[in-house]
Amino acid sequence: MLPFLIRRTFGAALILVLISAFTFFMFFAIPQDPALLACGKNCTPDALEIIHKNLGLDQPVTVQYWNFLIGIFAGRDFAVGHCDAPCFGVSFANNQNVWDTIVDRFPLTLSLTVGSLLVFLVVGLGAGMLAAKYRGTWVDKTFSSGSLVISSMQIYFLGPLVLLALVYSTGWLDKPKYVPFSEDLGGWFMGLLIPWVVMATIFTANYTRMSRSSMIEQLQEEHVKAARAKGMSGNFVFFRYAWRGSLIPIVTILGIDLSALLSGGMVTELTFGLAGLGRLALDSVVDKDLPMLMGVMLVSAALIILFNLIVDALYAVIDPRVRLS
Amino acid sequence: MTSPIKAEDSGSAAVLDPELAATTENAVAKSEKQPEGRSPGQLMWQRFKRDRTGVVSACVVIFFFVAAACAPLISKVYGKDPYTLYGQENPELLDMFTMPAKPFGGMDGEFWFGVEPGLGRDVFTQLLYGIRTSLATALAATILMTVLGVLIGLAGGYFGGKIDYWLGRITDFFMALPSQLFFVAAMPVITTVFVAPDKETPTYVRTCAIIIVLSFLGWMSMARIVRGATLSLRDREFIEAARISGASPWRIIRKELLPNIVTPTLVQATLMLPATILSIAFLSFVGVGYVEPTPDWGRMFAIGANTVEQDPYYMLFPGVAMVIFVVAFNLLGDSVRDAFDPKTGR
Question: Looking at this predicted complex, what is its ipTM?
């Protein structure tokens, strides 16, 4: 178990370095002049000169990348001031520290994605298990076809509809907003309830389907039959034996869906006017704010890799065969 | 040597009843001919025809494509286009808050799907042209992705060894990228390759950029599937036979491998197309895809989301059309897969 995790962590670190290099060279090597991007439409040669100097763009790209990497671990000095240890540079648009801005926006994105992850896992797996248990009956058909239609409603279509139904015309709920978790638990929950549910819908159907088919498969396995034949109760066999086995393909899908979760969060944030990491990425694309975009990309990539590590570790928890090999 | 009794016997039967003999002969010929006369494609087509869900969803999908292809014709018959600001020409259409003046978002005999809030354009033609834009872009991107994926997958699977190892690592790397975020981030970068940042970006450059970005970051699943299929075929007898008879690798790939990986490629491509359409809609919704005045499906949702409180009817038709399209395409993908490979049950 431990050597496996160590190996995976090294692999993850390598991938992160590669992603950072890829992103960096894409942004700083392909366009004619990144400073021109930062400068915008009303650019004067003087302003361009200042930007060049501030960002160290007069140096070769490889040196710039090295400085960028060093900056992440040791901090850097810019014309606008010193930038502390996890330094991802300074925004082109408003000279703010990239890392501070990301830290500021991160709790919202985390609440949003983890909340909706829980919603679609609980609803999706639950519906899939029910459908498997009552296979072929109306329960199965309702869940299977209902989830297909609902998942085909994109966040940007369903979101405004839900807002219209629950907020604008009836006033049952307030417009979604983010209240920090530590300040007001109830406000945090109520403020994010609609975004969680709406964001979860596009994922739920996939999990319902996966969990249904994988449950059905598991219920026909030898060890499940043996457990039944021993006289164990139906529910015990269903949850303890079949369910656990059915989780393996679902964990695989979950690992693949993590980056979709991030983009789903982006659309959700935009639909409900929440300012998280996704919104930050979009704003920095509009402002052509490359350092900010780089920071968000790297942090998101790191998050996805971290969650993938957790997912890999989950395999070992669920499936004893993984632990032994 | 033929037994004389038997020869005589069959001869008399033929004499006694020539008609019967002819029909039995025919029947034998037919039953012998039928099983060998069907290619895998024909078998697939027969299985597909029997699947009612598949046929219905195929019709829906074809309807969307035909409507998109005939958009200029339809809009000519209908008498409007997606660019004219009807609300400015005819001030009665929009009220003082620039919302449609008539109930139900201004739907009537003249404007079938209503009037756009704000600019007062015709929703029906906007949707029609929007679907056209999305489908055309998605089709181009999917074709490019498929070609890229097949090339890389084939190279990895066929040549194996070091080539396979490095191609596999590159595939893994691209899969680890947060793809949608990369779409968003790469769009301005790609456009600046073509256009100086202080100039307006023409629409065709945007289209190219979207296609490049989507296919550059979307070929991996196809490559994996093709590689897997190639690996399983590589050591089969017919490939070995071709190799022994001196066929060049290119000929083996073209004549022996490619025809055998058409099925998984086609199935994967039917799954990729709706995903690509949704990606394009996503790009336009977040504001880095198509911009005004190009009509686009995804951007209609951005407009609709802003005005849903005052004019919920604007988003109705684009939304319902998208739900129908995505559901139909998903069902079609399942049916195509089942038809090609009846073993993979749902």
Answer: 0.79
